[in-house]
Design brief:
By secondary structure, the protein is an all-alpha fold. The chain has helices at about 5-35, 40-65, 75-90, 95-125, 130-165. The longest helix is centred in the C-terminal third of the chain and has 36 residues, at about 130-165.
C-alpha cells in the first residue's frame, strides 16, 4: 500500500498494531506459564483478557473504516516476543528469570504505548472521534499494565532476584556480603549538589 495520505498511514499503523496484539495473545499464556511468581502469572493472565478486548476495539475501528485488519506482519513485536522466548529457555534462578520476563514485557508495553499514541493522534487529526476514544482507552490500559509491572518488579520480583545473589555461595562458605548499591549522596540543606 502506498502511503499517500495520513489516512493511509493510520490504516497501516492500525494493521501493525492488530497483528502485534494477536501475536501477544499467543505469547502471554507462555509467559504466564514460564513465570514462577504467582503475582507475575496473574499479571500476565489478566493482561491476556485485556489484550483480547484491545483486539476487539481494533476490529471495531476497522469495521468503521470498512477495511480488513489483516495483511501486515508486525516485525517489531515478532522480535520482542522472540527475545521473550529466549528468556523462557534460559536456566537460572526463578526469581531472576521472572525479573527478565518483566523487563521483556515492559519493552512490549512501551512499544505498544508508542504505537497507540501515534494512531490516537492520527485519529484525532482525521476527525475519527469514536476511534480516538477507543484508542485512548487502549493506551490507558497499556500504561496501567506498565505501571503494574513496575510495581511488581520494584516491590517483589527484583527484590527476590537481588537476594538470589546472596544464595550463590558454596556450602560451608559464608556468602559474600553484597557491595553497597551506588546511590547519589543527598545534598545537605542549603548546600550544592
Amino acid at each position: 500500500m502506498a502511503l499517500d495520505s495520513l489516512h493511509d498511514l493510520y490504516v497501516e499503523e492500525l494493521k501493525d498494531l492488530y497483528n502485534a496484539e494477536n501475536q501477544l495473545l499467543k505469547a502471554l499464556p507462555r509467559m504466564a506459564k514460564a513465570a514462577s511468581s504467582e503475582e507475575l502469572k496473574a499479571a500476565f493472565t489478566e493482561h491476556l483478557a485485556v489484550t483480547q478486548k484491545q483486539v476487539e476495539r481494533l476490529e471495531q475501528i476497522f469495521e468503521g473504516l470498512g477495511v480488513s485488519p489483516k495483511g501486515k506482519k508486525c516485525k517489531a513485536m515478532e522480535g520482542l516476543i522472540e527475545e521473550g522466548k529466549e528468556i523462557m529457555q534460559e536456566d537460572g534462578d526463578p526469581s531472576v528469570i521472572d525479573a527478565a520476563l518483566i523487563a521483556a514485557a515492559q519493552r512490549v508495553e512501551h512499544y505498544e504505548m508508542a504505537g497507540y499514541g501515534c494512531v490516537r493522534t492520527f485519529a484525532n487529526l482525521l476527525g475519527y472521534g469514536d476511534a480516538e476514544a477507543l484508542l485512548q482507552e487502549t493506551l490507558d490500559e497499556e500504561g496501567e499494565a506498565d505501571k503494574k509491572l513496575t510495581e511488581l518488579a520494584e516491590t517483589v520480583i527484583n527484590v527476590e532476584a537481588e537476594s538470589a545473589e546472596g544464595e550463590e555461595g558454596e556450602e560451608g562458605e559464608e556468602a559474600e556480603e553484597p557491595a553497597p548499591s551506588p546511590r547519589r549522596a543527598k545534598p545537605k540543606a542549603g548546600g550544592k549538589k
